[in-house]
Design goal:
With 378 residues, the chain is an alpha/beta fold. The chain has two domains: 3-284, NADP-dependent oxidoreductase domain (TIM Barrel, Alpha-Beta Barrel); 304-376, no CATH class. Helices cover 41% and strands 14% of the residues. It has helices at 33-45, 57-60, 62-70, 95-106, 124-128, 134-143, 158-168, 183-186, 189-198, 219-226, 234-243, 258-267, 276-289, 313-326, 331-337, 364-376; strands at 3-6, 9-12, 14-17, 50-52, 79-84, 111-119, 147-154, 174-178, 203-206, 248-254. The protein has an eight-stranded parallel β-barrel, surrounded by five helices. A two-stranded antiparallel ribbon has the order 1-2. Helix 4 (95-106) links the parallel strand 5 (79-84) and strand 6 (111-119). The longest helix has 14 residues, at 276-289. It starts with a strand and ends with a helix. It binds iron/sulfur cluster (2 copies). One iron/sulfur cluster is lined by residues 297-303, 313-314, 317, 357-358, 360, 362, 364.
């Protein structure tokens, strides 16, 4: 296992994500404890020392199961990360109640890495509420030694990250980003990483395989990558990409099976960074992938003043692209929740005034109709 130095600690560069643990009969809250314990043991034997869970994972069962398993290992031999569930704004104001419950579930007296979970447009006002006590409460817990390092995870627009960091930046010791070669440009992950790097905040990577999407490639893309590294499979390319970018603390992979864990650990036995030619080819493939099933909106905003419904057309198209590319997922529905319903894609009345001025000739009304249908059937 390769390690990163973080404030005097040796953190394994591969962490065990506990969001997609093996389950019984497909039931999310019914974690296969025996299999998870076996995987955790294998993780320890192969040098993994970072375990990432959260209040809401597996309908609230992940923390408790990991607490039960981890209590069999010396407390100083691992680092546990968990999160304040700010993705649900009804939890603001209940910080103390939740944190105490988390310590009970984990059967621990401190958490090594504690994150504000899923900072995004939906909850940024709550996080930044001057009357709110979220930051002050967790800073107090840090002073008491019940939290060792404070950080956050992020799923939003670059501007939201900037706004969050203006207030929280001085106290954040790490940030967790969705980072992979597809999102490098597509979701502005590279830009977000740079912002954090400039502030001296290292990054924990989530979704390095984009929920498994990057484990396979089209035959054409695969052939292009195989020509450069014949021995590497597509999953390995995704991990080698992360090893080639700066400012990474650790990489989380939600491992749902023993085989996945064995493969992932093998990849992190050594560092094999991409060279310039490999990086260029991979990012070229990412940009080609991002055009399949997506619309080429450049966010010029020429169209917006023509919309009688005052829809944020480029933002909605951006969410459509995200939703199409991932084949669903939670990001677009979550971002839409932060918008009034009269600004959703189904509010489009198909007047086509926007299309007349769009230099990209996007059939915006048709896209919104399709998007509304996709969201309905999700
Ligand atoms: S077609 Fe829809 S998005 Fe375009 S201007 Fe009309 S209402 Fe707005
Ligand atoms: S005019 Fe076209 S390219 Fe420009 S923001 Fe509107 S939809 Fe996007």
């Amino acid at each position: 296992m390769i390690y990163t130095d973080f404030k005097g600690k040796k953190i394994s560069q591969l962490g065990m994500g506990c969001m997609r643990l093996p389950v019984i009969n497909g039931r999310e809250s019914d974690i296969d404890i025996e299999q998870t314990a076996r995987m955790t043991q294998y993780a320890f034997q192969h040098g993994i020392n970072y375990f990432d869970t959260a209040y809401g994972y597996h309908n609230g069962r992940s923390e408790a199961v990991m607490g039960e398993i981890l209590k069999n290992y010396p407390r100083e031999s691992f680092y546990v990360a968990t999160k304040f569930p700010g993705y649900d704004i009804s939890y603001f104001g209940k910080e103390e109640e939740i944190f105490e419950e988390q310590l009970r579930r984990l059967q621990m007296d401190h958490v090594d890495f504690y994150l504000m979970h899923n900072v995004c447009e939906l909850n940024i006002d709550k996080y930044l509420d001057p009357q709110g006590k979220t930051l002050s409460y967790f800073r107090q817990q840090k002073e008491k030694g019940r939290i060792v390092h404070l950080g956050f995870s992020f799923h939003g627009e670059y501007e939201t990250l900037e706004a969050f960091l203006k207030v929280y930046g001085p106290y954040m010791e790490f940030g967790q980003l969705q980072l992979n070669y597809l999102d490098w440009e597509f979701q502005h992950a590279g830009k977000c990483l740079k912002l954090l790097e400039g502030m001296g905040i290292p990054v924990v990577v989530m979704e390095p395989l984009r929920g498994g999407k990057l484990c396979t490639q089209t035959p054409e893309f695969e052939a292009r990558l195989k020509a450069l590294r014949p021995e590497a499979d597509m999953r390995e390319w995704a991990f080698r990409f992360i090893q080639s970018v700066p400012n990474i603390l650790t990489v989380l992979s939600g491992m749902s099976s023993f085989d996945q864990m064995v493969q992932n650990i093998q990849t992190f036995e050594e560092e094999k960074k991409l060279d310039d030619a490999e990086m260029k080819e991979l990012l070229a493939i990412a940009s080609e992938m991002a055009t399949v099933g997506t619309v080429p909106c450049t966010a010029c905003r020429y169209c917006t003043s023509y919309c009688p419904q005052e829809l944020d057309i480029p933002r909605l198209l951006d969410l459509y692209n995200e939703h199409s590319l991932t084949g669903g997922g939670f990001i677009a529905p979550m971002a839409l929740q932060a918008m009034p319903v009269e600004k959703h894609p189904d509010a489009c009345i198909a007047c086509r005034a926007c299309e007349a001025v769009c230099p990209q000739n996007i059939k915006i009304a048709d896209v919104f109709e399709k998007f509304a249908g996709m969201l309905k059937n999700a």
